[in-house]
Design a protein that fits this description.
Largest sheet of chain A: none
CATH architecture of chain A: Orthogonal Bundle
CATH topology of the largest domain in chain B: MetI-like fold
Number of helices of chain A: 10
CATH superfamily of chain A: MetI-like
Mean pLDDT of chain B: 90
Helix content of chain A: over 70%
Structural class of chain A: mainly alpha
Number of domains of chain B: 2
Radius of gyration of chain B: 21 Å
CATH architecture of the largest domain in chain B: Orthogonal Bundle
Largest sheet of chain B: none
Helix content of chain B: over 70%
Strand content of chain B: under 5%
Order of helices and strands of chain A: HHHHHHHHHH
Number of domains of chain A: 1
Low-confidence stretches of chain B: none
Number of strands of chain B: 0
CATH topology of chain A: MetI-like fold
Distance between the termini of chain B: 57 Å
Low-confidence stretches of chain A: none
Number of helices of chain B: 8
Oligomer: heterodimer
Shape of chain A: globular
């Protein structure tokens, strides 16, 4: 039954390349999180507005992002835009897809967080002479970010895991892409992907650890 | 501009793919629910002894699903286990769902106040009776929304099984795109099917939740 010999040495030789890929993965995830948070904040504000157009747009965004697979979202951006004559690279499609997805999920989290900030505080801020934007920037958003900090780290881990989908649209320099390249060349599927899995696990754990440190540093009043 | 070579048969082919997606979701959730229920109860009732279990399940939540599919698929060939790709998809998704469901069940069980359980024990209920009549009904109400979210997310994650060669909804749309070269239209139809499936599951869940709340 077990007549397979593992060739770990070959896989370990590829480790530097895979670490470089891991860095690309992390970078992509971090970028998508930065854009995702900004868009999600905008979407959250838009959902609070009275303007039906803005609200409809934000609601549509959130419900599409949450009700379709992220792979489908990346596909639409890669093949769909391509068929309209916009040729995007697979990395851009991946980044845009994950950002779209992150923004949708985070907007839902932010809405929950927004409910936890009492409305009276906004009114108090306004009566102190702050403009609406100032009240949001200095009163609501800092408290909001504190409440959603834990979901935010969760989403960051999700974003790292989602970058592995890039390989399906042909990305070859992130961690999964590099691994797949080696896999195609050597057919040592199990060894290479086991190391990739380990690296992903380490990245995820590192993010959680850093987030915990940050939370300890930031939220001690 | 609006003439298309998308035929009725193509649509039926997509629906076939959607059926595979639903089957995968069903089996994965069935497996994940039983395993997750067991692990979650163990985690909540024996927190110290089952700490290693928590670490193991954490691995499944920190490694991309795509890589889990590839790893398990190649492990299957290495170990010479003769099962279909569909079974591989169900097992991997099932374990993945179980890893998440364990946490949901654990937090559900822990949400039942300990004093309540002590009260039930002092009324003469045995340990199992306490679990059956006090913890189960209360924990179910807490855990159900989480479970529903899990069903929806597993349904979306089934899209990844295309990588190990199962023709489900997204792969089916890919096949049609290759033939008729109208990616935007075909993908939009596939997306609509996903959207409708998610919406129906979410609606059913919301209705169930409401019916339970009437009896509270």
């Amino acid at each position: 039954m077990f007549d397979y010999t593992f060739h770990w040495r070959q896989a370990f030789k590829a480790l530097p390349d895979m670490l470089a890929g891991a860095w690309v993965t992390f970078e992509t995830a971090a970028l998508s999180m930065i854009f995702g948070v900004l868009i999600a904040l905008a979407l959250t504000v838009m959902r609070e507005l009275k303007n039906p157009l803005a609200r409809g747009f934000a609601n549509t965004w959130v419900s599409i992002a949450r009700n379709t697979p992220s792979l489908f979202q990346i596909y639409i951006l890669y093949f769909g835009l391509g068929s309209m004559g916009w040729h995007v690279s697979s990395w851009v499609a991946l980044l845009a897809g994950i950002t779209f997805n992150n923004a949708g999920y985070l907007a839902e989290n932010f809405r929950g967080g927004l409910k936890a900030v009492p409305g009276t505080q906004v009114r108090a801020a306004r009566s102190l002479g702050m403009s609406a934007f100032q009240a949001y920037r200095m009163i609501v958003v800092p408290q909001l970010l504190r409440i959603v900090f834990y979901p935010l780290t969760n989403q960051m881990v999700w974003a790292v895991l989602m970058t592995s989908l890039g390989v399906i649209v042909g990305l070859n320099n992130d961690l999964t892409g590099v691994t797949q390249d080696y896999n195609v060349k050597t057919f040592r599927t199990f060894e290479f992907f086991a190391i990739a899995a380990l690296l992903y696990y380490l990245i995820a754990k590192a993010i959680v650890a850093v987030a915990r440190l940050l939370a300890w540093r930031l939220f001690r009043y | 501009m609006f003439d298309t070579s998308f035929t009725w048969n193509d649509f039926l082919y997509l629906l076939d793919g959607a059926w595979v997606t639903l089957q995968l979701t069903f089996w994965a959730i069935l497996l994940g629910s039983f395993a997750g229920l067991l692990c979650g109860l163990l985690r909540a009732l024996l927190p110290r002894a089952t700490l290693p279990l928590a670490w193991v399940l954490d691995v499944f939540r920190s490694v991309p699903l795509l890589i889990q599919f590839v790893l398990f698929n190649s492990f299957k060939s290495i170990a010479g286990i003769d099962i279909s790709a569909f079974a591989v998809g169900c097992i991997v998704l099932g374990i993945y769902a179980a890893a998440y469901f364990t946490e949901i069940v654990r937090s559900g069980v822990l949400s039942v106040p300990f004093t309540l359980r002590r009260a039930s024990r002092s009324l003469g209920l045995s340990y199992l009776q306490d679990l059956r009549y006090i913890v189960l009904p209360m924990a179910t109400r807490v855990a159900f929304p989480g479970w529903l979210n899990l069903v929806l997310s597993v349904m979306k994650d089934t899209a990844l099984v295309m990588w190990i060669g199962i023709v489900e909804l997204l792969r089916a749309s890919q096949t049609i795109v290759t033939r008729i070269q109208e990616p935007l239209l075909v993908l939009c139809i596939a997306g609509l099917i996903y959207y409708v499936m998610s919406l129906v599951v979410a609606q059913l869940g919301a209705r169930l939740e409401k019916r339970w709340q009437e009896n509270d």
